[in-house]
Write a structure and sequence with these properties.
The structure holds two protein chains of two kinds.
Chain A lengths: L1 H72 L2 H8 L3 H15 L3 E6 L4 E4 L13 H8 L4 E7 L2 E11 L3 E11 L1 H11 L2 E6 L6 E5 L3 H10 L7 E5 L2 E9 L4 E8 H52 L14 H35 L2 H9 L8 E13 L1 H7 L2 H21 L3 E6 L2 E6 L8 H25 L5 E18 L2 E7 L1 H12 L5 E4 H7 L3 E9 L8 E9 L13
Parallel strand pairs in A: 14-16
Antiparallel strand pairs in A: 1-2, 1-5, 3-4, 4-5, 6-7, 6-10, 8-9, 9-10, 11-13, 11-14, 12-13, 14-15, 16-18, 17-18
Chain B lengths: L1 H16 L10 E8 L9 E5 L11 E3 L1 E3 L2 E3 L2 E5 L2 E4 L8 E7 L2 E8 L7 E3 L3 E7 L2 E11 L3 E4 L5 E5 L4 E8 L12 E5 L4 E8 L21
Parallel strand pairs in B: 1-17, 3-7, 6-12
Antiparallel strand pairs in B: 1-14, 2-13, 2-15, 4-5, 7-10, 8-9, 8-11, 11-12, 15-16
The chains are: A alpha+beta, B mainly beta.
Chain lengths: ~575, ~220
């Protein structure tokens, strides 16, 4: 029982805590998802901004390059050298001018597009210029600039005509885009920067802040859309933006998602701590609430246990005004009902006990009222003693079964007569019987009742004894009745009490019984005086009785007179 | 504006070359040059040459001014052996040069008129530039025949004082796509007759450096 309530409590705690944890978890997941989405958004914005900035920067740089290259191309010495086809001098001028503008390479192409000078020294001459489209653009008078891969290296190349004053050659200046460039851009933007030329399978990562493995991955997985996307690299998921920087070259900007999430980690940690604290507090709260809820339940359970153990003086104190309070009130009512039933049962039980001594009516009266009736007192009563003549001899001679059967029949015959006349059966003593009247409930005619009962007994027992006499057992029945004051009350000890009358009247009735022969009902003078109008009696005379100093006047009741003649006795229906 | 000035310069040059009573002689050629869109071509040089060579070149002197930081005229046709002076009418120096195969020369920064004229002794186009003014472009076209004329803005020109006979007419222009030698068409000049010569030529786009408005001394221009 206890275990079940404990589990009820823990179940309550688990449910409460589970709900709270669910809410916390949902909140955490929602916030976390929001943060991730927000971080993605932020990074995407950052990348877009950076790519726009880079593109603009490259554009500006290209314009500057065009300007610088144009300045170089206007040099008269260069023009002279070119115009005179003095290639050695031309190469020397180019190298000199390359240093002037700090370019990485200067090339001179003839009007037909063949390279005639190249500051890289080892590069072959006479070959077609690697970016012929730039020559066409320069010829068309436009600013010719592009990011071009030349011999595996990426350059930002500008081409301008050498005018004398008509174009006599094309001057190309190249500025390398290498790992250092990428590293500088990374310093500026905090992003990983890679420059890639070619498409799909032919994509080549020329310059990057990534390591070799990530470069290879990037070249393989460069998003086909060449726009924004994600990429899995060594550092985890990367948000990527691809921005064209030339006709055939792109800059790839990327940022690890983890890096963008890093500032939020602290926040999420705090959130997690708050959630955990919340769960702990919720646990405490749940335990408190569960205890609060289960305490009255436990009180009820305790009450129920006491009731089960037979203690009906239980009233659980649950003062709540809720369902449990209602349950407790109902429980108390139920226990009250049980208590009442138990009381009634006790009463019935006691009444049954009383019926051993008193008439059923008297027993009912006693059990209904208080027991003060049984308290010690003194009263004027009429005592009837009766027993069997010759019983002792019979008991010694006869079979025990016969003795017991005789006693049974005898008691069964006279017992009901005691109750019928509302006498108080004081005791059975084998064949003897003592009954008194006017106590504990007073009656108007104790003597008359006593005599009427005695006569009824004599007649009934006579019929019984006839049967036994025919079986050879000579038994008689004698009765003595006396009247007087006696001390009456409960005697005995806890567990075995008797209601006894003590006094001379008792002794006198007993002596008269001893004196009576079979069929005789000997009464004392006062008794006779009381019942004289009701009975035919024969004076026996004054008898000297043991224990009595003076002789006692004794009458034998022969018969009851006809009832109608008795004005004092109402006709029984 | 510049074209107008150039045309004016051409007229002056012609006046120097062809003068006298022949001006009224109808014997000659009426020239018209249009581009492939049918628009008249200004400053095209049309020349007549006898098929087997013939008439000896007429040497002459000519002038290529630098005026308001432009070469005037834009195109100056001369005969082989012509001595051209380059007077600088501006109050700043110019640095005239040419890397053309027909005549390579350089007049380093100077003011006024250089003492010695430049003699153009080989036929062919000579592109003139100024080292300090990128937009300054001028052309001296050196011819091996004395019979030539430069078109005006209307693409027309009249070539007089040509002895009657059979000739080959050729056209040259700074932006001509074709080789001038291959533009030859036969022309017969009769006495007292005016022979019409018409060219339709394809031109390269005009890619001269642009003299931007607001530039020092700029006076508009195309």
């Amino acid at each position: 029982m206890r275990f079940r309530f404990r589990s009820f409590r823990s179940r309550l705690v688990v449910v409460f805590l589970g709900l709270f944890a669910l809410i916390q978890a949902t909140g955490y997941i929602a916030v976390s998802a929001f943060v991730r989405a927000s971080a993605r958004h932020t990074v995407a914005d950052e990348l877009r901004l950076a790519s726009t900035l880079f593109a603009r920067q490259l554009e500006v740089r290209s314009q500057q390059l065009v300007g610088a290259t144009r300045l170089l191309s206007g040099d008269f010495a260069l023009k002279t050298a070119v115009a005179t086809s003095d290639h050695a001098t031309t190469a020397s001028v180019l190298e000199n001018h390359r240093r002037r503008v700090d370019a990485d390479v200067l090339m001179l192409a003839a009007l037909d597009g063949a390279v005639v000078a190249d500051t890289r020294g080892t590069a072959p001459l006479g070959v077609p210029f690697p970016a012929p489209r730039l020559l066409s653009e320069a010829e068309a008078g436009r600013d010719a600039s592009d990011v071009v891969a030349i011999a595996g290296n990426l350059y930002q190349v500008t081409v301008v005509p050498v005018l004398a004053p008509e174009p006599i050659a094309w001057l190309a200046a190249g500025f390398a885009i290498d790992d250092q460039t990428a590293a500088e851009l990374r310093r500026l933007s905090g992003l990983h920067v890679s420059f890639v030329s070619g498409h799909d399978a032919a994509a080549v990562v020329h310059a990057s802040t990534l390591d070799a493995a990530d470069r290879a991955t990037l070249a393989r997985h460069l998003p086909v859309t060449r726009a924004a996307g994600t990429l899995e690299l060594g550092g985890g998921e990367q948000l990527v933006r691809v921005e064209p920087v030339g006709r055939d070259a792109v800059v790839v900007l990327q940022r690890p998602l983890a890096e963008a999430l890093a500032p939020y980690d602290h926040m999420l940690l705090i959130l997690l701590a708050v959630a955990a604290t919340g769960v702990v507090l919720a646990l405490l709260g749940a335990v408190l609430v569960a205890r609060r809820v289960s305490r009255p339940v436990l009180t009820l359970a305790g009450g129920a246990r006491r009731v089960a153990a037979g203690d009906f003086d239980v009233a659980v104190a649950v003062s709540q005004r809720d369902e449990l309070g209602e349950l407790a009130a109902t429980f108390n009512d139920m226990v009250g009902g049980l208590r009442e039933r138990e009381r009634v049962r006790d009463e019935l039980e006691r009444t049954a006990k009383l019926k051993r001594f008193f008439s059923p009516q008297l027993a009912d009266a006693l059990s209904a009222g208080d027991e003060s009736l049984l308290a010690s007192h003194r009263r004027h009563i009429t005592v009837v003693f009766c027993d069997l003549r010759g019983f002792t001899a019979f008991a010694e001679a006869a079979d025990p079964e016969d003795v017991m059967r005789l006693l049974h029949d005898y008691h069964a015959t006279i017992g009901p007569l005691v109750f019928a006349n509302e006498g108080t059966l004081e005791r059975f003593t084998g064949d003897g019987l003592m009954v008194f009247f006017n106590d504990p409930v007073p009656c108007p005619d104790p003597a008359a009742r006593a005599v009427r009962m005695a006569v009824a007994m004599r007649d009934a027992v006579a019929a019984l004894l006839d049967g036994w006499r025919q079986r050879g057992h000579a038994l008689g029945f004698g009765t003595g009745i006396a009247m007087g004051d006696a001390t009456i009350g409960r005697i005995g000890f806890e567990g075995r009490f008797d209601y006894a009358a003590i006094g001379t009247v008792t002794n006198l009735a007993a002596r008269l019984c001893q004196e009576a022969r079979d069929g005789q009902i000997l009464v004392s003078a006062p008794v006779h005086a009381e019942v004289e109008p009701l009975v035919d009696a024969k004076p026996i005379g004054a008898l000297a009785l043991r224990g009595f100093a003076r002789p006692v006047m004794v009458y034998d009741i022969l018969a009851l007179r006809a009832e109608p003649a008795a004005p004092t006795s109402p006709v029984a229906p | 504006m510049r074209r107008m000035l150039a045309a004016l310069g051409g007229a002056v040059a012609l006046g120097l070359v062809a003068s006298g009573p022949a001006m009224t002689d109808p014997t000659g050629v009426d020239v018209i040059v249009k581009d492939d869109h049918g628009k008249p071509v200004d400053a095209a040089v049309v020349s007549l040459a006898a098929p087997g060579g013939g008439a000896p070149p007429r040497t002459a002197e000519a002038v290529m001014d630098q005026q308001n930081k432009e070469f005037v005229p834009f195109v100056l046709p001369v005969t082989v052996g012509a001595a051209v002076t380059f007077p600088n009418r501006d109050n700043i120096r110019h640095h005239v040069y040419s890397f053309s195969p027909a005549k390579r020369f350089e007049l380093p920064l100077y003011i006024g008129t250089p003492a010695a004229p430049v003699v153009f002794d080989k036929p062919g186009p000579v592109v003139l530039g100024c080292n300090i003014h990128d937009w300054m472009v001028g052309y001296i076209y050196v011819l091996a025949t004395p019979y030539f004329v430069k078109t005006g803005e209307d693409g027309r020109a009249r070539l007089s004082n040509v002895p009657p006979g059979a000739y080959e007419a050729r056209v040259w222009h700074p932006r001509l796509k074709a080789d001038t030698e291959k533009t030859a068409i036969p022309v017969t000049v009769g006495t007292g007759e005016t022979a019409p010569v018409s060219f339709a030529v394809a031109l390269k786009p005009d890619r001269r450096p642009i003299r931007r408005p607001g530039y020092e001394g700029a006076q508009g221009g195309s």
